[in-house]
């Protein structure tokens, strides 16, 4: 199926599910056009962005928002920097971690880029290490062990964990790191070709709700006992200070995944909608206001939407890193001073 036909099918399905046939009042000519570039078809970023399109276009606020599929979140920043004229009316799916790489000019970005600003989080990703070996309990036990992470470009599943291993634990040369991919890491742990693998999922820090990632669910379904290895709050802080990465200290509640009997110290990477400072302030304000007012509706489109709540929309962000228009909406809602 072509991209165009897939997009029509996805939007039609969403409209049928929600019972929404219109796109708000006013004519297209009178509305301000807003572009929302999301992520690959079928991903959480794509589906939640399509949901935001329906929500914004159902508001009587003079905006017409169009969400579109893209190859990925790194592509989003590159495309807006290549065509800066689009920045005035374009929002993108992005993460705080990828923004860090862009600002620092680190791979996969060939040169430093301006910093994007928050519109709203829709996910907070958390990862840590796990094993089937009950004898691996301490950092000393990890020495010499085979540890599987995601692929090198993945910020949450590879780059940020490597920063903690290097700068937080000081164990860069003590582990046999394999960067093979998230699904592959889980399979390698199941097959016994590695001793430890990266697992995790997505959280709402306000409610404590946690949704395990697909490969984490696969490991839980094996029927074998998982043993979880905390990064430790001090290690997260050390890595944040040494690298400058936006690692948000976090705790995953006991019982969030199989075998997790006590609260686990980890970190969040904020995943959401961001924009460059040139985005029209009134546009940012109206879109953010619509997100706040309708935050409960996102759960009707995707399971990850169940993790969205008013306070989670800006969790982990300082006021100076939020787009001015979005900041105005959050202040009006009493979510930030």
TrEMBL record:
Coiled coil residues, start to end: none
Official protein name in the record: TAXI family TRAP transporter solute-binding subunit
InterPro entries noted in UniProt: TRAP_TAXI
Pfam assignment, any one: NMT1_3
NCBIfam families: TRAP_TAXI (TIGR02122)
Bilayer-spanning residue ranges: none
Species this protein is from: Alloyangia pacifica
Taxonomy, superkingdom: Bacteria
